[in-house]
Amino acid sequence: MTQFCPHPGSSAFSSLSVSPVLPKISPPPVPSSPPSFGGPVTLNVGGTLYSTTLETLTRFPDSMLGAMFRAGTPIAPNLNPQGGGHYFIDRDGKAFRHILNFLRLGRLDLPRGYGETALLRAEADFYQIQPLLDALRELEASRGAPVPTAALLHADVDASPRLVHFSARRGPHHYELSSVQVDTFRANIFCTDPECLGAMRARFGVASEDRAEGGPHFRLEWAPCPAELPEVEYRRLGLQPLWTGGPGELREVVGTPGFLEEVLRVALEHGFRLDSVFPDPEDLLNSRSLRFVRH
C-alpha cells in the first residue's frame, strides 16, 4: 500500500510540536556498507533524486538529516538495480531542492516570486533545520506583516462506489470468486492564494508531480482498502490511500467528512470564511462542495 507522509503542520485549534524522530527508511534487500564522507550520497525524496555528500547533509548536526547520517547511525540503504546505494524519504521532492541549497550555501536563496514559503517552512520544521526556520522568519519579517488579500477557495469532492471481483484462496486447491465494494473518492481544490494552496498540498502529503498540478488547483484521488479486499488485489488495482497529519499522528482519510474537515482547518488558518455549502448547508462535512472567500 503506497503511503504519503504529510508534513507536520498546525491546525485551526492547536499547534503541533514535532520531535526529531527519524523518518522511515526503506529496508535493504541485502546488507550494505554505509556511505563514506567525501563520496556521493543519492537521496530519493518523494520520487525526485538528489546527489550530494555527507558533509552537506550533516552541516547542521542537530537537524534530523544530521542525525540520520551521523557517523555510526544504523540506517539501511535501499539498493537500486544498478547497485548504488540510495535513501528514500517520503517527503516533498520539489521543496527539498531549497532545503539542499540551504545546506550547501548556508543562506536562503529563493527564486523571485516564490509562493510556497508555508510548505518550505513545514519541510524545514520536519527536518528540524533551525537556521533555515530562522531565515524564513527573517524573510517574512522583511516583507512586513502579511496583509490578507482577497482570495477564493473552492473544494469539491465526489464519491463513487465500485464493485471489485477477485479470487480468494480458501484451501490448497480451492479458490472462490468474491466481490467487495470499494469507494473511490475524487477531489479538486482550487485556491487563488499560493500560500494557502501550498499548505493544502502539504496537509495532504502531495509530494510528487503526478499528484500535483501547476496553477491554482490540484486534484486528489484515493480509495480506502476494505478489510475484505486482500492487499495484493488492492495494489493490483492501482488503488492508494490518502493520509494527513503530522509525524506520530498520521491519519488515513477514509471518506468525505475527514477530507472536508482538513480543508476547513487550512482555510480558517489562512483567514478564509465559509461562503456556501452544496447541497445541504446543514450537513457541512457530508457535502459535495465548499466555497470559501477572503475579502
Summarize the structure.
With 295 residues, this protein is α+β, with helices and mostly antiparallel strands. The chain is built from eight helices and eleven strands. It has two domains: 40-143, Potassium Channel Kv1.1, Chain A, CATH 3.30.710.10; 151-294, no CATH class.
Q: What is the secondary structure topology, with strand pairs?
A:
Elements: E1 40-45, E2 48-53, H1 54-57, H2 64-68, E3 78-79, E4 85-89, H3 93-105, H4 117-126, H5 130-142, E5 151-171, E6 174-191, H6 194-203, E7 217-222, H7 231-236, E8 243-244, E9 251-252, H8 256-269, E10 273-278, E11 289-294
Parallel strand pairs: 1-4
Antiparallel strand pairs: 1-2, 3-4, 5-6, 5-11, 6-7, 8-9, 10-11
How would you characterize this protein structure?
This protein is α+β, with helices and mostly antiparallel strands. The chain has 2 domains: 40-143, Potassium Channel Kv1.1, Chain A; 151-294, no CATH class. Helices cover 25% and strands 27% of the residues. It is built from 8 helices and 11 strands. The protein has helices at residues 54-57, 64-68, 93-105, 117-126, 130-142, 194-203, 231-236, 256-269; strands at residues 40-45, 48-53, 78-79, 85-89, 151-171, 174-191, 217-222, 243-244, 251-252, 273-278, 289-294. The protein has a 5-stranded antiparallel β-sheet with strand order 7-6-5-11-10. A 4-stranded mixed β-sheet has the order 2-1-4-3. A two-stranded antiparallel ribbon has the order 8-9. The longest helix has 14 residues, at 256-269. It is flat and about 60 Å long. Mean pLDDT is 79; it is low at 1-33, 76-83 and 207-213. This is BTB/POZ domain-containing protein KCTD11. Pathway: Protein modification; protein ubiquitination.
